[in-house]
Amino acid sequence: MPAVTDEELVRKSKEDDERAFGELVSRYESKVYSLALRMVRNPEDAEDVLQDTFLRAYRGIKSFQGASTFSTWIYRITANSALMRLRKKQLPTVSIDNADERETPVNIADWSPTPDEQLLNQELQHEMEEAIRSLPAEFQQVFVLRDIEEMSNAEVAEILDLSVAAVKSRLHRARLKVRNRLAGYFSESAKPKRRAMGVH
Amino acid sequence: MLTCKEVLDSLSDYLDADMKEELISEVKRHIGSCSDCRAEFDTLTMTLKLYKHEHAEPTVMPVGCHDRLVKVLELEKLRSKGAPPPKMV
């Protein structure tokens, strides 16, 4: 027997079929939790986002027009809920429109050949975590949806209600900001070794 | 011929292969001959590799998370039907 489609479950949910809405919850709760966790980066907040998302979906299902798929709609609610939570917690940051990218390369240290064992250490993982936390919330969203969830630019644009050009711009700047922070880590971590080797 | 600034601005699109083939060839050529832009490209590539590696494991919902969600939705159903809130124990 073919599985019931999301569209059918949405139609039934609009007619107050609570089992149908329950089935939508079962289908998407893990995905919503996963996305929320990657955006807010702690389990307690992720669970709050999960509950908030499905509460909003339950209250709004009758006004869901079906212009997008249910999955896009539920991810959009998740992203908005996560964004509000991140904004509450974040210190004021510079406007995301204030570009701070360099216009020309400035002889950056190339740490890309770093041995794999060093790349997996906890200190580096912590640095990566901090680099992502320090991104403006709007950058974190694009970074997670594109580089972790591996959605297309068009999908991310639809979920975040942005143009594809804006998604690409934010993604590029988010990647650079994280990379620049890691570059700082590698240049610091290289210093003791140089001293130990008698290099000044 | 592309300038360093043009190459830097297009590195993400280049990484994602989200540009015309002729432009991909030009960026590739520039990176091959400019050590600074190559370092920019290599470290950006490594950043994404690290980030993806860290998030490769699927996330699992905590124990009880599903039950708490169901409870919240049940309370919302009661509330929307005008039922009095249940007594807190």
| Shape assignment of chain A | elongated
Number of helices of chain A: 9
Task: Summarize the biggest pleated sheet of chain A.
Answer: none
Strand content of chain B: under 5%
- Please estimate the helix content of chain A: 55-70%
**Quaternary status:** heterodimer
Backbone CA Rg of chain B: 26 Å
Name the CATH homologous superfamily of the largest domain in chain A. Answer: RNA polymerase sigma factor, region 2, helix turn helix motif
- The number of domains of chain B: 1
The largest inter-chain interface, given as chain pair and residues per side, is:
A-B, 50 and 41 residues
DSSP E strands of chain B, number:
0
The overall strand count of chain A is: 0
End-to-end CA span of chain B: 73 Å
CATH architecture of the largest domain in chain A: Orthogonal Bundle
Shape descriptor of chain B reads elongated
Strand content of chain A is under 5%
Alpha-beta classification of chain A: mainly alpha
Distance between the termini of chain A: 72 Å
Mean pLDDT of chain B: 88
Mean of the pLDDT scores of chain A? 83
CATH fold node name of the largest domain in chain A: Rna Polymerase Sigma Factor, Chain: A
Domain RNA polymerase sigma factor 70 region 4 type (chain A): 127-177
Organism (chain A): Eiseniibacteriota bacterium
Pfam families (chain A): Sigma70_r2, Sigma70_r4_2
Protein name (chain A): RNA polymerase sigma factor
Provide structural commentary.
- The complex is a heterodimer of chains A (200) and B (89).
- Chain A has 200 residues and is mostly helical.
- Chain A has two domains: 6-89, RNA polymerase sigma factor, region 2, helix turn helix motif (Rna Polymerase Sigma Factor, Chain: A); 116-196, Orthogonal Bundle (Arc Repressor Mutant, subunit A).
- Chain A is 70% helix and 0% strand.
- Chain A has nine helices and no strands.
- Chain A has helices at residues 6-14, 18-40, 43-60, 70-89, 116-119, 122-133, 137-148, 153-160, 164-196.
- Chain A is elongated.
- Chain B is mostly helical.
- Chain B has one domain (1-82).
- Chain B has helices spanning 4-9, 11-15, 21-33, 35-54, 65-80.
- Chain B is elongated.
- The chains are: A mainly alpha (200), B mainly alpha (89).
- Chains A and B meet through helix 2, helix 3, helix 6 and helix 9 of A and helix 1, helix 2, helix 4 and helix 5 of B.
- Chain B: This is Anti-sigma factor.
